[in-house]
Structure formats: C-alpha cells, structure tokens
Design brief:
Elements (H helix, E strand, L loop, with lengths): L7 H6 L6 E8 L2 E2 L3 H11 L3 E6 L5 H15 L8 E4 L10 H14 L4 E4 L2 H8 L6
Parallel strand pairs: 1-3, 3-4, 4-5
Antiparallel strand pairs: 1-2
Helix pairs in contact: 3-4
Amino acid sequence: MAKKTIDWVKVKNKAGVKFAIIRAIVRDNETDDYWVRNARECERLGIPYGAFIYSYATTVTEAESEVDYMLSLLEGRSPSLPIYIDIEDNSTLGSDYVAIARAFCKKIEATGYDAGVYASLNWWRNYLDNPVLS
C-alpha cells in the first residue's frame, strides 16, 4: 500500500467525517512518517483526533516502552480522543495480551489521556475477551 499525504481540508469538508485516529508509531518505537503532519493538521483544522500504536509487544516491559515512546510523541500535541494500542499481530501469539493491554492503558491514563484497546473481532474474542478490559 502506497503512503500518501492526506488532504485534511478535504477530510474535514467530507460529510460524515467527525474525527480521526492517527497512527503514531509503526513498530519498535519508530515514528510514523506522517504522525507530526497529521496531528498538526487535525489541530489546525479543529478535527478531533486520537492516536494509536500497532503493537508488537510480547511483554509488559515492551508495552511500557511503547507507552513511553508514545507519550514522547504526544508532547506538545493536544489529542481530544483516546490513545489506543492495536493488538492483533500474529508474531506476538502466545503473549499475555490482557497484561500488555492493561499496562498500556494504565500508564496512558496515569498521564491524563483516555486509553483504549483495538483489535479485530477475532482477536478480541480469542485473546482479549477479559473483564479486566471491559
């Protein structure tokens, strides 16, 4: 899939578009090439936004490292929507996803942001369906 620069003015003017959830981290604490621009444009145009990391964490320690990096990217930004961890990569099978998601959310929320967990329905049902995350 080719990367493209988003025309945020068109996004804002498109009927039905109310917010954006922007990828901030690609993997292994690598910033998405478009993160800064996309966040700035949403702020400039008044588009509510949140952010997410597609996580490859296999331990709580790795998840906490991802949170620390995410928080560094949020410095100077003002997202009004939650910060999400996207958990659904097959390379992490066998990990304690509930502990990873819980650690991520706890640390994000401790800084005043709302946190959330994203996964496909299959991943949610098979790996994340736990009252701790409700």
